[in-house]
Fold:
Amino acid sequence: MPFLIREEFKHAVADGGRALVARGLTVGTWGNLSIRDPATGLVYIKPSGMPYETIEPEDIVVLDAAGRVVSGTRKPSVEFHLHLSILNARPDLAAVLHTHPLYSSVFGVLGEEIPAISEDFAQLIGEKAPCSVYALPGTEELARNVVAALGAGKAVLLPNHGAVCVGKNIDEAMNVAAVLEKTAHIYLLARSIGTPRVIDPRDIALMQEFMRNDYGQRG
Ligand SMILES: [Zn+2]
Structure:
């Protein structure tokens, strides 16, 4: 049976890559992103080693859950193990962003987590963005380490490397990446002049409950 390939997902990956660069969340050809079509389970991923500005929808590679290329002529991102391992472990997700952001990376270099010090972080990401165990880029070991650190969470720091942010869709993953980076910036500034106050876990739980049930416009 031929695979159902949907052009809108190729466009979403190409556009999402440009957004990562425009938001300063990665540079050059580094970082990568994938989106899973919930209807087919196929994963649309950035091609390896291409600058985001030059990537067109036809350059996007489509993989099945086992990593076989089912559409596309390019090589997939070197971090395809990372993307597939996360998506296979988390049926609730449809988008994975691997970024090389400035301020979030500071804490990965230190091997530290980023705690919930701002309300948007608490609401969207939760108690913390943990730091995973170091492994070389592109390896299955890196994928395993990130899956273990991520658990049921939304964001993980990669030592001496960058970050991984996830979402139920590409918009949520982009928001996670932006809020993680903004919070890392605040945390760095706050620690440089004092001792940051971390939000109480009970308040984080209440804020997350509110976001799930009461936030936004009613139809
Ligand atoms: Zn990377």
User: Anything to note?
Assistant: Residues 7-213 form a domain with the L-fuculose-1-phosphate Aldolase fold (CATH 3.40.225.10). Strands lie at 32-36, 43-45, 61-63, 69-71, 95-99, 114-115, 128-129, 155-158, 162-167. The chain is about 40% helix and 15% strand.
